[in-house]
Each structure stands twice: as C-alpha cells, then as structure tokens.
C-alpha cells in the first residue's frame, strides 16, 4: 500500500482521462463516519488529482482491508452494488443511470488486503474505469 500519494505512473494514467491533471495537495479534515475518515484513521493515504480550478478529477484512497470491511454495510445502505472488476478480490460501485446515460461516481476495491477507493467525476461506466483501476492496483503491487 502506498504510504504517500503516488504521482509518476498513476498521474500519467489520470492524464489519459483529464489532460492537465496534477497532484492536488489537500489538507484533509474528514467528517466522522465517512470513507475518508475510515481510510485515514486506518493509516491509509488520501490523494486528489485533477484540475483544481475546473473542479474535475478524482480522489483516490489507499488503506487497509479492515477499513474496507468496516465500510461495507454503509456502502450497501448508500446504494452501492457489488460489481465484477478484473484484478480485484471484491468491488463495490455507486452508479447512477439517467435514461440511457450511466455514471460511475465511486469504486471501492479490495486488492491483496488493500482497500482502493476511487471517487471520480468523469467515469461513464466500469469499462472505461479500467485503465485508472489498473494504475491504482499497480501502486499496491509496487
């Protein structure tokens, strides 16, 4: 699990989605009982990438399997559903369908005892999230 926010290859992958993306150093103040608080409290890292002025990008958390398990019931209550994501042991997604349009807002992935949370503003579906998921998984396996 990364101990600081990855840039390098992960930032390259982000730029495939949102050109001009940078790492945005964010002073986190997580609200209680949120994914952000659970991830940070478990010793994980929270990282924002994108174009700050345009408010487009992603927040990615890398944390522990225990934190993942502690949030599962809340995800279900929030309307997230279990999905199949290649390379993961378990995956949950918050998807919204509006007529013919689908939007993936949040992915929670369990990979090799690491929780990866990807919250993004630009993922139309699970398939298009693949390269970003792969880059996040690669950070776990470094």
Write the topology of this structure.
Layout: H1 8-17, E1 22-24, H2 35-41, E2 45-51, E3 56-64, H3 65-77, E4 81-82, E5 90-98, E6 101-111, E7 114-123, H4 126-140
Antiparallel strand pairs: 1-2, 2-3, 3-7, 4-5, 5-6, 6-7
Helix pairs in contact: 1-4
Observed structural traits:
142 residues, 7-stranded antiparallel β-sheet, 7 strands, 4 helices, single chain, 36% strand, alpha+beta, globular
Q: For the report, how would you describe the main beta sheet?
A: 7 strands, antiparallel
Count the DSSP helices.
Answer: 4
The fraction of residues assigned to DSSP E strands is: 35-45%
- Give the low-pLDDT segments: none
Distance between the termini: 8 Å
Which structural class do you get from the secondary structure elements?
alpha+beta
Strand order in the largest sheet = 1-2-3-7-6-5-4
Compressed to H and E, one letter per element, the order equals HEHEEHEEEEH
> Radius of gyration from the CA trace?
14 Å
- Global outline: globular
Kindly report the average pLDDT value: 94
How many beta-strand runs?
7
Helix content: 25-40%
Describe it for me?
With 142 residues, this protein is an alpha+beta fold. The protein is 32% helix and 36% strand. It is built from four helices and seven strands, in the order H-E-H-E-E-H-E-E-E-E-H. It has helices spanning 8-17, 35-41, 65-77, 126-140, and strands at 22-24, 45-51, 56-64, 81-82, 90-98, 101-111, 114-123. Strands 1-2-3-7-6-5-4 form a seven-stranded antiparallel beta sheet, sandwiched between helices. Strand 4 and strand 5 (90-98) form a beta hairpin. It is globular, with a radius of gyration of 14 Å. The relative contact order is 0.19.
């Amino acid at each position: 699990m990364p101990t600081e926010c990855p840039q390098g290859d992960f930032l390259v992958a982000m730029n495939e989605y949102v050109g001009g993306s940078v790492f945005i150093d964010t002073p986190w103040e997580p609200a209680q009982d949120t994914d952000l608080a659970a991830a940070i409290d478990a010793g994980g890292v929270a990282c924002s990438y994108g174009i700050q002025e345009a408010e487009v990008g992603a927040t990615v958390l890398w944390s522990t399997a225990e934190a993942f398990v502690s949030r599962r019931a809340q995800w279900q209550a929030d309307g997230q559903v279990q999905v199949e994501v290649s390379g993961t042991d378990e995956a949950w997604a918050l998807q919204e369908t509006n007529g013919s349009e689908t939007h993936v807002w949040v992915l929670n992935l369990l990979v090799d005892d690491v929780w990866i949370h990807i919250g993004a503003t630009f993922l139309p579906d699970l398939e298009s999230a693949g390269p970003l998921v792969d880059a996040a998984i690669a950070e776990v396996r470094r």
